[in-house]
Each structure stands twice: as structure tokens, then as C-alpha cells.
Amino acid sequence: MWVPFHSRLISTVLPVLLFLSIAHAQDNRVTIWTFRGHDAAISSECSNQAREFLRLAQAFPLPHDWHFILVCDDFTWRRFVRETGQYRAGVEVYGSTNLLGRITYIRGWALTHVDLTSGAPSPARIMAHELAHVILGTPDDREAEAQAIAWLRDSDLPVYPIREAP
Fold it and tell me: With 90 as the cut, is the pLDDT of residue 138 above it?
């Protein structure tokens, strides 16, 4: 379940050492949290992921009063996927939105490590898909994907194919 994992994650991995706010349409509405252990410096990899998130976020409509949690390391991401019940063998998860909690989790690694040979989505497609869940207020992946594709067609951002889940 979402809330127990989120609470456990915050209590065991905080303090949050990096807070970035996106100034969009003249007001700060989105916060990125990147988690690291006590006294750990933010890695250059995590900083690069945060910069990429900020760059991509400028291309899409952003919600009011929403939190984005950028999970920088893949070990924590895979733990998150397992503990929130989203794990399915052979299926990669790149983002996850909790509409009731007003939180979107983004797999930071996927924003900076694009593998064109695997059929993985582009970073822009990951962002557009998760933001479509938020803007439309829907948990339905097909609806979110249709909106994401519509936004991406109207942008200059690259789009790579995404394989359908089995």
C-alpha cells in the first residue's frame, strides 16, 4: 500500500537534502524530493536527474499543490515498486502516481539513461504519461497514454516506443 511505504521511506531515508522548486507560470507549485541517507552528499547523477526533470517539466502543464518524488537510485526504486505492489516479472515501471495522495514518483535513472534498443519510453514520454494521470485525474493507463502522446505530438521532445505490458 502507498501510505505505509511512503511513511517508512521518509522515516528511514530522510533527511531530504535537496529540495528544488519549479517556477512555472509565476508560482512555485512543484517540489522535487531526492532522498539520500544521513550526511550523504547528493550525487552528480542525482543532480543530473533533477536537472532533466526540471527541463522536461517545463514542457507540460503542471498541477497545483502536487508533489513529485524523484527516486535517484535504482535500488530504492525497485524496493518502492515491490513494496507498493506494482512488481510484475518482465515489466518495468518508470513512474507511479498516487492521485489521492497527490504524489507522483519518478524513476530518476530512467530520465538520464535512455536505452533505444530496449523499447523503453523516452524521458519525455515518462513525464508526459505521469502528468497525464495527474491532469486528467485518472488511474487508467490507456487514457493517460493517449493524452501523453497528444502532448508529445505538439512538442519538440523525442518520443520512443513503449511496449505494452503483457
Answer: yes
138 located within any domain: yes
- pLDDT band at residue 93 under the 50/70/90 scheme: very high
d(CA 136, CA 132): 6
- pTM exceeding 0.90: no
Is 160 inside any structural domain? no
Q: Tell me if 141 is assigned to some domain.
A: yes
Laid out side by side, the sheet with 16-24 consists of 16-24, 27-35, 66-71, 103-107, 95-98
Domain membership of residue 59 (yes or no) is yes
> Is the backbone peptide bond immediately before 15 cis, with ω within 30 degrees of 0?
yes
Domain residue limits at 146: 2-153
Residue 118 has a CB neighbour count (10 Å cut-off) of 10
Handedness of CA 5, 45, 47, 111 (dihedral sign): negative
State the Cα–Cα distance between residues 12 and 9, nearest whole angstrom: 5
Nearest C-alpha neighbor of 55 from the set 86, 24, 28, 84: 24
* Predicted local confidence at residue 41, as pLDDT: 64
What is the rounded average pLDDT of the residues 53-66? 82
pLDDT in tens, 142-161: 999 999 988 888 887 766 55
**Number of domains present in the structure of the chain:** 1
